[in-house]
């Protein structure tokens, strides 16, 4: 029969062993939970990245619709057409400024054609400024490149800076430059050489005939 001292020692030792085992289990549970939370955080970051690009591409569809309507309403200065003032060969809706120039532009409107009477040329200038403001608002550091005319159609490129557009070494990817030989998605996502787009910029291109 065990003495009272031995019995107390055994009970005390068993209690310590149980407490130690519980502590190890808690540490393992915390470790597993931490790994799970890190995985969830990474998934949320990736989801946010794709969500932004999806939202931007969705906004670009609305922006091109807005721009095409502005050109259709004011065709006299859209280029290569007969206007009241004669033949207009160059389009007042063209935009060829570089990315850097557009980022520095404050897009100030000098004459509001919504409240004032404007000539077709003034209306085109107003339309471009308002539309470019929308591009900058709806796309991160948004900019655009517009070429073409009323007769041959317009090619509109919208650009935005994607800070998550980097390679495996965490270096921003160079913007793909259009060569004229692209097909498929490459043709729809390359950036015009004239804009000198910096690394990290993404482009989406649309064409339409007014």
Summary, kept brief:
It contains 4 helices and 5 strands. The protein is α+β, with helices and mostly antiparallel strands and 210 residues long. The model has no long low-confidence stretch (mean pLDDT 82).
What would you note in describing this structure?
The protein is an alpha+beta fold. Helix content is 48%, strand content 14%. The chain has four helices and five strands; from the N terminus they run αββααββαβ. The strands form two sheets. It has a three-stranded antiparallel β-sheet with strand order 3-4-5. It has a two-stranded antiparallel ribbon with strand order 1-2. α1 runs antiparallel to α3. The longest helix has 70 residues. The N and C termini lie far apart (104 Å). The model has no long low-confidence stretch (mean pLDDT 82).
User: Order of strands side by side in the largest beta sheet?
Assistant: 3-4-5
Report the β-strand fraction as a percent range: 5-15%
- The Rg value, from CA coordinates, equals 31 Å
Q: Give a quick account of the main beta sheet: strands, pairing sense, barrel closure.
A: 3 strands, antiparallel
List low-confidence stretches.
none
Number of helices: 4
Strand segment count: 5
Q: Helices and strands, in N-to-C order?
A: HEEHHEEHE
Overall pLDDT metric: 82
The percent range for helix content is 40-55%
Instruction: State the secondary-structure class.
Output: alpha+beta
Give the N-terminus to C-terminus distance in angstroms.
104 Å
Shape: elongated
